[in-house]
Amino acid sequence: MREIGIDQLDDMARGAGILGTGGGGDPYVGKLLAREAIRRHGPVRVYDIDEVPADATVVAISGMGAPTVLLEKLPAGTEELTALRALESVLGRPATHLVPIEVGGVNSMIPIAAAAQAGLPLVDGDAMGRAFPEAQMVLPTLIDVSNTPMALADDKGNTLVVDTISNVWAERLARAACVQMGCQVSCADTVMRGDQLRDGLVPATLTLAENLGRAVREARAAHADPVAAAQSVLGGVRLFTGKIVDVERRTTGGFARGQALLESVQGGTGKLELSFQNEHLLARRDGEIVATTPDLICVLDTYSGEPVTTEAMRYGLRVTVVAAPCDPRWTTPGGLELAGPRYFGYDCDYLPLAV
Amino acid sequence: MREIGIDQLDDMARGAGILGTGGGGDPYVGKLLAREAIRRHGPVRVYDIDEVPADATVVAISGMGAPTVLLEKLPAGTEELTALRALESVLGRPATHLVPIEVGGVNSMIPIAAAAQAGLPLVDGDAMGRAFPEAQMVLPTLIDVSNTPMALADDKGNTLVVDTISNVWAERLARAACVQMGCQVSCADTVMRGDQLRDGLVPATLTLAENLGRAVREARAAHADPVAAAQSVLGGVRLFTGKIVDVERRTTGGFARGQALLESVQGGTGKLELSFQNEHLLARRDGEIVATTPDLICVLDTYSGEPVTTEAMRYGLRVTVVAAPCDPRWTTPGGLELAGPRYFGYDCDYLPLAV
Fold first, then answer.
1. Do residue A158 and residue B162 have CB atoms under 8 angstroms apart?
2. pTM to 2 decimal places
3. Any chain B CB within 8 A of the CB of A161?
4. Nearest CA in chain B to A179
């Protein structure tokens, strides 16, 4: 057991933003929410997966919506607890632990805020080991754990509980409601027992996020290369360094979808094209695919090493794209069916990274 | 207390179809559902509003969706009970009585089927005294009774419970989910105590539907004018008799929307235009508005007196349009704000019928 206080949030949000592969929401907004909750309610206890009792009731907490909307429409800060209470009421028992559904700037911070507000401990891990755009794209789906009952709450006071025959159906119904609720809601779902966490979570990703964020900060302070520091912690490969010259982005169906084009600077001729749906899903270098979902495609500010979320991509930004291997369960046939490139409509197979 | 058996269903479905003003779903489909449920579980007890104990838990049962879809995608027959159980589970207590949310071919029959299946009595009345397309258009909204918790169930086994800050929000969230669920779901909602029914319901509309349906059948058997018989029971005015010459209909946003044009036959020159959103909302005769929502605009087959639902309107059909006054609570300022012509985007005020 350890504790997360206000001092850890900067590193953790930065690292989670990088692991979020462009999605999971703006780290700054997430940090504000977690900081305020810890300031009011005190630090949050964090347990390793192994420390969680077998009969614990672990609930995943997250924000759902389009990160483009989150930038302009801040959460009220009460939604997570409202969603949690709605879920507990249907379950007929209280949650004993909370856990992030994914890592990402906001989606690592919202569970911290919720844990502080609820006085509950957090589990060090998440259900993706990265961020994915759709609710069924979690390891629990691969082990037949339902993501419902799923409770949604908006900033206005509306709540919704869905109970579906599959995790894909939960995504469909929740997403449609989420769009009506203003494209930014909080969710409590994917209830697991403690003894399901080993198969249902990627372990220690909060710790990884903090280490990653610290490495970037320390490299910057030492006038070293922060991107290289991130790449080293991620065990990834550098795909491209250049300038964003074009971004096509639209908020449709409850997602931020689009493409971005990067060009080399300093006389280089190469190009890199990124395709995203909240998260970066495909990278093409000079027309050739060099990285695909479910591997992590992370865009960092070349000078500061800060994560650049898909909604923050804009012309002129100097960025470096790093790819890192996903949790190996995502590259099984079941994992690729759920979150591989073909699911998203790209006519290509998963391309293992040359690390 | 009286009982509804299989023998009453024909008249009741016909009458409810007429009172449904084009909406509420096809009477034939509704009759099949109710007949099968009564065949299996026996007749349904029906109580007048005055006979319901003050502390009763009365739940409204209905189908939501586009009637154009219902014609091709029949309910599984299990949805109502699933929705009811989901609602009861959130309420923490069982329903003691069921009631239709509206009259209409299917929406008068589904509560009968649900009552038979659940072994619960039905209240003789409904929350509109006609059919309306949207969930907040019920008398309970006028007396600040929430239509949530509202439970939805589809034919596949998915359920949803919404709990909202207003009855309009319930419509928004439920409609969005309904579209995803295939545009045809069952709902259990608008929980009232027995002592709220006098203000929350239009009384005795099941009896009215049966009387109306019987009058049409008996007139037909006596070779009298079945439309005149219906008009007499409704206390309405005959707006037009003619032939349907054009129907423009689209299923969008979870509704069947459109216009129909009627022309006189036998040398006449007049025209009548009907505008509908599931239900008929506006009638223009020779360009002049002659009837508006919330009054009832009923389209009947000229020869048989059978109700013609908006989804069944087709070229060549000989029909007579009868308008009848709505429950007086709908023509109050609050009622007109909720279901008057301006709510639906028509640039005109409510026009009281010249009866």
1. yes
2. 0.91
3. yes
4. B176
